[in-house]
Amino acid sequence: MTDALGWIFAKVAGGQDSGFHDAGVETFKGDFSRYLARELIQNSLDARLDQNKPAEIHFAVEDIPVLDIPDAKRLAATIQRCGEYWSRDKKAKFFFQRAVDLLSKGNITTLRVSDYNTTGVQGSDADRDQNWYNLVRCSGSSSKGGGEGGSFGIGKNAPLAASQLRTVLYSTRTADGVAFQGIAKLATHSHPDGGKAQATGYLGGPDGESVRAVAAVPKRFLRSQQGTDIFILGIAAAPSWNDDLTFSVLENFWPAIHFKDLQVTIGETRITADNLESLLEAFSTKDGFSAHHYFRAFTNPTKYVKADLPFLKRVDLYLRVGEPDLPKRIAMIRKTGMVIYPRQFRSPLKFSGVFLCRNDRGNEILRDMEPPRHDSWDPDLPEKGQNKKVDSELTSFLRENVRGLTPADEAKSLAIPGLSRFLPDDEESPEQDFDAQPEADIREESADRRPIAKTLPGQRIDPRRRVSPPDNTVVGEEPSDTEGPDDEGPGPEPDGPPNEGEGGRSKRTGDSGGPSDGTTRTPIPILYRTFSRDRSAGLYMAVVTAKQKGTRDALLQINNIGDDGRKNPAEISVARTSKDEVLPVRGNTIGPVRLTGGKPVRIELVLSEPARVSMEVGAHEAE
After folding, report:
1. Residue pLDDT, tens place only, 509-518
2. Is residue 115 a contact partner of residue 55, using CB atoms and an 8 Å limit?
C-alpha cells in the first residue's frame, strides 16, 4: 500500500512564481531551537487532552534511511529542478544543491517531535474549521480560539525553516483515526510535463491528499498513540542540540512546566515541575540565560500585586529585589504559560519580575497584540492604534509598581529658586512624541522654565543634558520598523529604540562634551541620536546635527553610560561615514567630521568588543 505514496507538485497554470525566499519561512530563520520550541510546544499545549495532566513533548534526533522516505527520488529530482530554475540566485542554488546531496546519502538526520496527552490534529483535508486543514493544507490561516497560543497560522513554517530540505512529515492519531502527510515548501520550478510547478508539494495519495488508512502509512511513521509526530528532515543538529533545546525550553516555558501543564523530554533530559528549579540553577551560569531570575521572582517575590485592570481584568505582578545581577526586566506571560518577552524598565534598584494574565478576556486581547512570532505585545495590532489604551494601561501599571520598589527619601527638602532650570524634566511629566516636535525645538528647554529670580552665590553650574523618551526615528528620517515594543531601559536593544540628547555643552575634560586627550576646545551645540544596528558585531549608528548655522570641522567624543549613570569612554575600533569614508579614531574621539548647521551626519561605529550600551555624544571644534 505504501508504494502508492508519491510527491505531487501541481502546475502553476499561469499563476505567479514563488521564489526561494518565502516570507513565512524566513520569519523563523536563525535560532531554530528557540522558534521550534516556542511554536511546537505551544501547539501541543493548545491540544491538551486531559486538562488535569500535563501535555508531554519529546524531542529526539535520529538518522532515518533515505530509502524509508516515500518517493525520495522524485523529491530529489524536484529539488534539482528548483536549483536549475533559480540558478541565478546564489543562496537558492546553494540550498537546493545541498538538499540534493543530503538525499543522495544513506541516512538523513531528522528531528522527531512527538506529543502525548493531546487530541492529535483533527479534521479532514477540506474541513476549514479544523486544525488539520489549517496546519497542512492552507497557508496563513488558523482555526484556534481566543484562549490558545497561535493566531496567524504562520508558526507552522518554523519546522520548515529548520529543515535543510524544507520538508516535514506529519503523522497523527485522533479519536477518529490516523492521518499522514508530507509537505515540502520549495520554489517554483519546471514541471516534468511542461510548464511550471508550484513551490509547495505534498506527499500523499494520487492527488496529493493525506493518507487515512492505517495500512497505507509507512510503519516507521505510523503513530501508535493518540497525538502527533512531526519529522523534520535534514535537521542541522549541532553536537550541543540537546543543551540548546533545553536552554530554549527553560527560558520560554518554565511557567507552563511550573504550573504542571507541560513536561518536556529532550534526548535523555526530562524537564518536569519536580526538577525545574535544579535545571534552572544548572543553566543559570550560561551566557544570556535569565529564566532563573524570573522563576525566583515568581516563587519568592519581594512584592506581589493583584489587580483588576479596566481592559485586561485580573492580572498578577511578582517583583523581586536583592541580588546584584537581576536584569531590571519583567517576564510577560499570558494563559499558555509561555514567556512572550522580557520587558525592561528603569530603576535605581536591580530587580526582576513576572507579569501574568490568565483570565480569558485579558488573554484574548494580549494574543491579538502578538505578531506572528509571538514575541511582543504591539499596540498597533491587529490594527494600527487599536490597542493603544491597553498598552498605556499595562505600561502605567508596571511602571507604578517598579517605582514603588525604591524607598521614598524622607529627608527634609530645601526649595531653591530657579533650580528647575538646571535639572532634567521629572519622569512623571507627560511624554511627547519625538516626531511631533519641530526639528529646531528638539531637546530645547521647555517654555515654562522661568528666569532665575535672584543670583545665587557659588560656582557657575553647567546645565545637565535633558533626555527625552526614545522613539524609533532618527533625525531627518522616517520611522523604522522594530520587532517589539520600545524598551524602558537606559540602553537600546539590538536594532531597537535609539538614544538621543544634546552634546557639546560642557568644557570639562573627559565629560560628554570634552575631548579625551586632556585639551579644552570650543564646544559645538549638537543634536544626536544613537542606536544599535547589529549587536552581535558591536555595530552602532550615530546621527549628529549641528544646531548653529555655518560649517565647521568637529571632533566627536563618544561615552558609554552605565545603569548607575556613570560615563566611560567608548572603545571604538572603526568609524566611517555613510559614504564609507573611514574617520580617524583616537580613544573615544572621532574626527575631524564636517558639520553643517541643520544637516544630519550619519556615522557608523564599531565597538572594540560587542556589547549593548547606551551612548552619549559630545562635539568640539577641531583645532
Report:
1. 334 445 544 5
2. yes
Q: Per residue in 302-352, pLDDT tens? A: 999 999 999 999 999 999 998 889 999 999 999 999 999 999 998 889 999
Domain map (residue ranges) of the chain: 2-237, 290-403, 490-623
The pTM score is 0.66
Q: Is 551 exposed, middle or buried (0-12, 13-18, 19+ CB in 10 A)?
A: exposed
With a CB cutoff of 8 Å and minimum separation 6, the contacts of 96 are 20, 79, 80, 82, 83, 86, 186
C-alpha cell at 154: 504562520
The closest alpha carbon to 544, from 460, 470, 434, 620, belongs to 620
Query: Which grid coordinates are listed for 321?
Result: 529585589
Q: Report the CATH number of the 490-623 domain.
A: 2.60.40
What DSSP string describes 26-79?
Answer: HTT-S-HHHHHHHHHHHHHHHTBS-TTS-EEEEEEEEEEEGGGSTTHHHHHHHH
Three-state SS for 114-167 is EEECECCCCCCCCCCCCHHHHHHHCCCCCCCCCCCCCCCCCCCHHHHHHECCCE
C-alpha cell at 24: 513565512
For residues 167 and 184, what is the distance between their CA atoms, to the nearest angstrom?
4
Peptide bond preceding 479: is omega within 30 degrees of 0, i.e. cis? Answer: no
